[in-house]
């Protein structure tokens, strides 16, 4: 099963589709909370605020989409309302752990510098993934005539990737080497997550 086939299988099953939306909502929410948690006490830019606000909106928007499938599905983020619950829950945290370890070992960063660099790399890798995942999902939604729609998220995620690139280029001349490493960590976590999702069938 490739990723699009997996999504088509999820979308064709109303209960799984509701849990998929809830799972994406959880992951967006985790991302939003991580961005806010990594904020410096005073050094907070408009880009960072915009980004946190939009990720929170994605979590809310995805949760709202569930009502188009069933009015009482998935009221919370409890395990039974998610797909691949443990992999989905720890995905971002694991990526953060890998990236922080890498940054400590290669750049010797600590404190606020480590927090900010981890925010840049983790978020960059997630944005690369989001720019791949949401369009495939939207294709499946279009092909099946679903009422669910994630077009507004796709638009904002494209903006995020551009904003992360601007911030990464300011951060380091070697940004590409570090960004590639983050994407490598993310790819292995993604593969693991997809396998866990496949186990739902
Ligand atoms: Fe998002
Ligand atoms: Fe984003």
Question: Would you write up a description of this structure?
Answer:
α4 (85-107) runs antiparallel to α7 (175-198) and α5 (111-143) crosses α7. This protein has helices at 3-11, 14-37, 46-65, 85-107, 111-143, 151-171, 175-198. With 201 residues, the chain is mainly α. The protein is globular. The model has no long low-confidence stretch (mean pLDDT 96). It is built from seven helices and no strands. Bound molecules: fe (ii) ion (2 copies). Residues 28, 55, 58, 130, 157 line the site of one fe (ii) ion.
Shape: globular
Query: Largest beta sheet, briefly?
Result: none
Classify the helix fraction into a percent range. over 70%
Question: How would you spell out the order of helices and strands?
Answer: HHHHHHH
Which helices and strands, and how do they pair?
Blueprint: H1 3-11, H2 14-37, H3 46-65, H4 85-107, H5 111-143, H6 151-171, H7 175-198
Describe this structure in a few short sentences.
The chain is an all-alpha fold and 201 residues long. The protein is 77% helix and 0% strand.
């Amino acid at each position: 099963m490739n990723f699009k086939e997996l999504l088509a299988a999820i979308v064709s099953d109303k209960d799984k589709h509701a849990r998929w939306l809830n799972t994406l909502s959880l992951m967006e929410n985790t991302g939003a909370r991580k961005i806010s948690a990594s904020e410096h006490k005073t050094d907070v830019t408009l880009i960072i605020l915009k980004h946190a606000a939009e990720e929170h909106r994605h979590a809310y928007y995805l949760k709202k989409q569930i009502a188009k499938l069933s009015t009482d599905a998935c009221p919370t983020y409890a395990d039974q309302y998610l797909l691949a619950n443990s992999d989905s829950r720890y995905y971002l945290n694991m990526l953060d752990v890998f990236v922080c370890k890498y940054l400590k070992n290669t750049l010797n960063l600590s404190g606020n510098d480590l927090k900010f660099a981890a925010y840049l790399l983790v978020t960059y890798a997630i944005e690369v993934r989001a720019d791949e995942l949401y369009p495939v999902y939207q294709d499946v939604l279009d092909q099946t005539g679903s009422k669910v729609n994630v077009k507004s998220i796709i638009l904002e995620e494209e903006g995020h990737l551009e904003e992360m690139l601007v911030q990464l280029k300011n951060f380091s001349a070697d940004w590409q080497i570090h960004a590639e490493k983050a994407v490598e960590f993310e790819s292995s976590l993604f593969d693991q997550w997809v396998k866990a999702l496949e186990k739902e069938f």
